[in-house]
Amino acid sequence: MRRNQIDQILHDLEKKIVFIVGPRQVGKTWLAKEIGKKFKHSQYLNYDRFEDQQIIKAESWPKRTDLLILDELHKMPGWKNYLKGVFDTRAEGLRILVTGSARLDAFRQTGDSLAGRFFAHRLLPFSLAEIKKHPELATVERFIERGGFPEPFLAESETDARRWRNQYVDGLVRTDILNFENINDLNAIKMVFEILRRLVGSPLSVASIARDAGVSPVTATRYIGILEALFIIFRIYPYSNNIGRSILKAPKAYFYDTPLVVGDIGARFENHLAVSLLKHVSASNDCLGDTL
């Protein structure tokens, strides 16, 4: 199913590095490979694969490569300096596309800045606009029941969608969170995650979350930040003409995957609307430069 960003990404590749970032299993690798099909000599390399690691480190991809796709490159020590060097010394006609699950500004690795050398595109779950050519699927009810992640949304049955989600949550907790940052108490961050699932639509009280999770407010704030950096949740602050006043007010938290919300249909519908609006704002910012 075609994603809306393809044309803009192809345009941006002619000028700079392009990053595709977004939640785990939202379709970043699929999109990168679809874009690769539009080039004669694209090369896909995944840093998780040992053989590809060696090619990446030695920069030994074929000289005729016209699109270099680097998946999970952020796991490479010093990846920012590495990528800066590859881009600055690239052969004529080489475009570079990088994918990853965590936000670019969330990584703790040191290295030279990539400022001015890349465009970032946030790939978020399907929206109604993206699937309007498939009216049998384009229903709000389906989005609320299955969310917009490709595999559960397109699954043959609700059972398959639920099985995917169970594995998805397990992977988030056991892999993404642990790989992202040292966590002293995995059960505590899981507790914060479960509490947030039940608070969608309500202003967040860090003190209350900390008390219920048995951690300090500082730790609760840190855990919420990690969940946000890994594209599990996002926060929305109340609108105000006074920016300072808006920031001081309690935000609401929403999940990129609507079925993770534990609550009534109203809470899940509100979450669906929040994801849809975030997708629109993100696209306007990434593709048009708008700051809404």
What are the SSEs and their pairings?
Blueprint: H1 6-13, E1 17-21, H2 28-36, E2 42-46, H3 50-58, E3 67-71, H4 79-88, E4 95-100, E5 118-122, H5 140-146, H6 150-154, H7 158-180, H8 186-197, H9 206-213, H10 217-229, E6 233-236, H11 243-248, E7 252-255, H12 265-288
Parallel strand pairs: 1-4, 1-5, 2-3, 3-4
Antiparallel strand pairs: 6-7
Helix pairs in contact: 8-9, 9-10
Q: What name goes with the CATH superfamily of the largest domain? A: Winged helix-like DNA-binding domain superfamily/Winged helix DNA-binding domain
Q: What percentage of the residues does DSSP assign to strands (E)?
A: 5-15%
Cα-atom radius of gyration: 20 Å
* Biggest sheet, spatial arrangement of strands: 2-3-4-1-5
What number of domains?
2
Summed up, the helix count is: 12
Largest sheet: 5 strands, parallel
| Shape category | globular
- Number-wise, the strands total 7
| CATH class bucket of the largest domain | Mainly Alpha
Q: Level of helix content? A: 40-55%
Overall mean pLDDT: 90
CATH names the topology of the largest domain as Arc Repressor Mutant, subunit A
Low-confidence stretches: 107-111
Distance between the termini: 28 Å
Order of helices and strands: HEHEHEHEEHHHHHHEHEH
Structural class: alpha/beta
CATH architecture of the largest domain: Orthogonal Bundle
